[in-house]
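Q: Give me a backbone?
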Amino acid sequence: MKRIVVKLSGEMLAGNQGFGIEPQTIRRFAQEIKDVKAEGIEIALVIGGGNIFRGLAGASKGMDRAHADYMGMLATVINALAFQDALEQEGVHTRVMSAIKMDKIAEPYVRRRAIRHLEKGRVVIFAAGTGNPYFSTDTGAALRAAEIQADVMLKGTKVDGVYNKDPYKHEDAIRFTQLTHKEVLSKELGVLDSTAASLCMENKIPLIVFNLYEKGNILKIVRGDDIGTHITTS
C-alpha cells in the first residue's frame, strides 16, 4: 500500500459522550494516523458528520432531504477541522479540502491539487462529502478513492469486520473474512450503501472493514496483517 483512504464515522469522534467531539478520542485517532504516516503511507481521510447532524435523520423527521443533507455536509466540515487541529498538534502537516467552497477555512477540492498534497507528504481530509445531497459520506469516500487512485479504502467501524447480521443483537452472527463487492450488494449486508459499493466495484478499489477502536489496527493493516473483512472485486 502506498496511498490509502480512511473512512471514519462521525459517531466515533464523540467517544463515550455520544454526541459532539471528545478531545481525548480524536487525539488518539490522530496519533494512529501519525504512526501510519511514519511508514511512508500517503493518507486521505473522509469523516462523517453523524456525531453532529445526520441528513437522513433530519429528512425522516420531516425536513427537506436536500436541505438536511447540506446540513450534514457542514457537520463533516466541523469534524474535518477538529481532526486537522488534532493532527497538527501531533506535528502532521494537514490540508482540509471541501467539496463546498469555504475559502476562509478550507481549500476547494481540486483532484490534482489533492494528489500533489499527498505526494508532498501531507494528510488530506476531504470534507462536505461529494458536495451534493442524496449521497452518503461512504459514497464520497469511494469517489475520492477512485479519483486519487488510492490502493485501498479502509472503513473503521465499532466491530471487527462485516457480519451476516448485527453481532450486538445476535450471538450467532458470523463474521466474513473475505467478500466480493457483488456479494456486499447481493446480500445487502449494509456495510456500504449500494452507490459506494458499486463505485468500489467498478473502479476495482479493495475495501477493508475493521475495528477502529482497537488501537493500532490501521498500522497493522498497512503492514500486511490480516485484520477485518477484505472486500475485493473477485
